[in-house]
């Protein structure tokens, strides 16, 4: 498998199994980098989706203390990497469902930004439908990318990733060949010669 294409490129299609595998790879990377951060002095450490959208929030910027440097440096290295891999595999999974990459905005970006700035939005009736949409859309995206099969056969984004497995021929059933199972035994003293069935047939 081409790992560069699989984890970092946005073209083509992948099935559900490879999408779950990408999530497992991201999780392992997160655990590894969190262990490094803790080893270098970070008291507690965790990656979260909110780290992606804090980049757009001015309130998250401030003068960091010396104790925060391991945490900040690790997140500066890890968050862009995890975001890129997630986006690349998510888009390829959308392609497998026959949808364009623009659905990433509806399923992930818009709900994430709303969650980041939710507490600073005014109390108004027009916020309610937006909040409902930002709750339903990520759930719909999760179900679609993680559990639903892609379009059967090729689509505008590439060939079906499951077509190769679906088209594998079934091995033929083994038949008992009478000619190969019988052998002519030359006559000996006992038992008499004649036609016998092979022991391993």
TrEMBL record:
GO terms for cellular component: plasma membrane. The keyword Transmembrane applies. Keywords: Membrane, Transmembrane, Transmembrane helix. The chain crosses the membrane at residues 21-49, 69-91, 98-114, 126-148. This is DUF805 domain-containing protein. It comes from Bradyrhizobium betae.
């Amino acid at each position: 498998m081409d790992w560069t294409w699989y984890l970092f490129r946005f073209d083509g299609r992948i099935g559900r199994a490879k999408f779950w595998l990408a999530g497992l790879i991201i999780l392992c990377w997160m655990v590894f980098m969190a262990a490094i951060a803790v080893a270098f002095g970070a008291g507690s450490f965790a990656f979260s989706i909110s780290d992606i959208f804090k980049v757009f929030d001015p309130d998250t910027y401030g003068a960091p203390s010396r104790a925060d440097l391991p945490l900040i440096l690790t997140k500066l290295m890890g968050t862009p990497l995890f975001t890129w891999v997630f986006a690349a595999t998510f888009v390829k999974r959308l392609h497998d469902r026959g949808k364009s990459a623009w659905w990433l905005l509806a399923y992930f970006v818009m709900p994430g930004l709303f969650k980041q700035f939710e507490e600073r939005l005014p109390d108004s009736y027009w916020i309610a439908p937006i909040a409902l949409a930002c709750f339903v859309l990520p759930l719909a995206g999760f179900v679609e990318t993680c559990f639903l099969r892609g379009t059967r056969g090729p689509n505008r984004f590439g060939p079906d990733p499951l077509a190769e497995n679906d088209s594998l021929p079934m091995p033929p059933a083994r038949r008992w060949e009478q000619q190969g199972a019988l052998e002519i035994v030359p006559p000996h003293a006992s038992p008499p010669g004649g036609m016998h069935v092979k022991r391993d047939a």
